[in-house]
Amino acid sequence: MDLLVGLSRDELRTFSWIAAAVFALVAGLWRWRRLHWTALGAVLLFAALNAGAGIYVLNTFRDSRWSAGGEPPLSAPSFSETPIVGQYFGPLDSALQGMVGGVNDFLAFKQALPVALDFLAVSGWALLLSFPLAVLAAVISFAMARRRAAEFEKYRTKVDLLEDELEQVKRQISAAEGSGHGTPVS
């Protein structure tokens, strides 16, 4: 079952852009505080889709979608219909059909290869872009983690200070109760 059989070369190219953009939009809205990781994920998805499209083109190189309208497929002449000696040329016909089929496959592959290489080149450029994005995303995440750790330390210090004040208040209350006189004089 071939799901991409109805897509032309340009539609396949557009599909990878649209899928990456939709992913970036949906994931960006869902996890808006981690847009740096969403951007990296969208670029990697774009690279994977283009690599998959290139592999798909190479896998279906006989498909007419990949030809630029160049040479028509070759056909072998039939020698078996030749009068008098035609019956002896039957094996030659099958050999010629096999050879012409191989040449047609080669021509189809030759026409599909530039299309596949275009997809693979775009995938390579996307992967090249993903390396600085990955470094940037890691730096941003590190800075966010450092800021959270600093805020946590600030809150921890404040909690420790409040615990010390609470202990002082408890000591003052117990000292006031122990002396039996109302409120302590400071």
Radius of gyration: 36 Å
What is the terminal separation in angstroms? Answer: 88 Å
Biggest sheet overview:
none
β-strand number: 0
Compute the number of helices: 3
Shape: rod-shaped
User: Structural class of the helices, strands and pairings?
Assistant: mainly alpha
Mean pLDDT metric: 86
Helix content: over 70%
- Sheet-strand content, in percent, reads under 5%
Order of SSEs: HHH
User: Which parts are unreliable, with pLDDT below 50 for 5 consecutive residues or more?
Assistant: none
Give an account of the 3D structure.
It is a single chain. By secondary structure, the chain is mostly helical. The chain has a domain at 9-133. The chain has helices spanning 9-30, 35-59, 90-179. Helix 2 packs antiparallel against helix 3 (90-179). The chain is rod-shaped and about 135 Å long. The model has no long low-confidence stretch (mean pLDDT 86).
List the defining traits of the structure above:
186 residues; mainly alpha; 3 helices; rod-shaped
Topology:
Blueprint: H1 9-30, H2 35-59, H3 90-179
Briefly characterize the structure.
This protein is an all-alpha fold. The chain has 3 helices and no strands.
